[in-house]
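Translate structure to sequence.
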């Protein structure tokens, strides 16, 4: 298959016939996969298959015959994972989109109804209209690291919840909560040991790990999240990486009015870990600390100053990975 969107000519009855770009949308649920095709009238109607090994195999076979330019699906809590990998391994171009973007597109197109069949068609229309670039799904080792990072975050959240409950728990349940906390702490330790083993066993990850932890305020949590969930680090410009994570301010101007700038969107799981690391960096990292104090002296609210420091820390890490040079306070002032 060609890797670019292209309309060409092929031999047909009566001479050359114009080829039609076909886009496919797959609405993923736990039990089934609804498939929509756009544009309509290409001789292929909507269909569905089961979301299991046999259904995915059937889907791959039917789409290989159809040869779409792109297959678009939404992130569906992990149910889309095996489907996307099966299609990618078959040589199909796959794009997994944020559900909010697709829903906004549907409303803008005047499509207010929401069923699995409608959603599949909307996904196909989204691909046809906006031509999103497929996101690299990564190899097996990368997906394993990403899954461990996600699981670590889940365990940390459960652990924080149990510790908060312990503070106000009555005597009758304290023992139970303490046992749960102990089990969660053991699980967290096992996960972190497995993450470290993956990072140390991969030369590329190990090199990036050593570069990232050379920055004061950056530790295990942020480094593992960046390596597992932000593979673009070091390959994008400072503005693009900030926008991808969701720490780039967006303008809200109209006519003579100048609205308040604010951050929006991005990868929330990366941003939340970056926030905690920045709180540490404001105390222990001389460059980030001086930057934060300067913003406060200029009258910036603490929340705005912290967000600006998050962006600065991220651009520093991006530059360090891009150049392959460890932390240097003199170079970090203007990364």
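Result:
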């Amino acid at each position: 298959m060609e890797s670019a969107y292209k309309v060409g000519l092929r031999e047909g009855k009566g001479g050359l016939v114009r080829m039609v770009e076909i886009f496919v949308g797959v609405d993923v649920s736990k039990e089934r996969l609804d498939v929509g095709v756009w544009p309509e009238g290409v001789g292929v109607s909507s269909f569905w298959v089961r979301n299991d090994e046999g259904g995915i195999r059937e889907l791959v076979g039917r789409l290989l015959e159809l040869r779409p330019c792109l297959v678009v699906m939404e992130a569906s809590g992990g149910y889309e994972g095996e489907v996307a990998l099966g299609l990618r391994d078959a040589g199909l171009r796959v794009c997994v989109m944020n559900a909010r973007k697709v829903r906004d597109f549907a409303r803008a197109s005047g499509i207010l109804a929401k069923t699995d069949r409608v959603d599949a068609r909307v996904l196909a229309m989204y691909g046809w209209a906006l031509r999103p670039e497929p996101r690299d799904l990564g190899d097996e080792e990368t997906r394993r690291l990403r899954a461990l990072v996600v699981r670590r975050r889940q365990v940390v959240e459960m652990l924080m919840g149990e510790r908060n409950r312990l503070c106000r728990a009555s005597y009758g349940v304290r023992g139970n909560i303490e046992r749960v906390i102990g089990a969660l702490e053991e699980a967290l330790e096992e996960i972190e040991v497995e993450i470290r083993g993956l990072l140390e066993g991969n030369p590329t990850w190990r090199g990036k790990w050593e570069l990232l932890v050379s920055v004061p305020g950056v530790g295990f949590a942020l480094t593992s999240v960046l390596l597992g969930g932000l593979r673009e680090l070091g390959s994008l410009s400072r503005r693009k990486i900030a926008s991808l994570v969701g720490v780039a301010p967006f303008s809200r101007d109209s006519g003579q009015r100048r609205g308040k700038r604010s951050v929006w969107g991005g990868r929330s799981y990366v941003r939340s870990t970056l926030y905690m690391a920045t709180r540490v960096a404001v105390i222990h990292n001389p460059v980030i600390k001086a930057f934060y104090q300067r913003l406060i002296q200029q009258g910036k609210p603490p929340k705005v100053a912290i967000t600006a420091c998050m962006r600065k820390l991220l651009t520093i890490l991006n530059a360090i990975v891009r150049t392959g040079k460890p932390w240097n306070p003199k170079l970090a002032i203007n990364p």
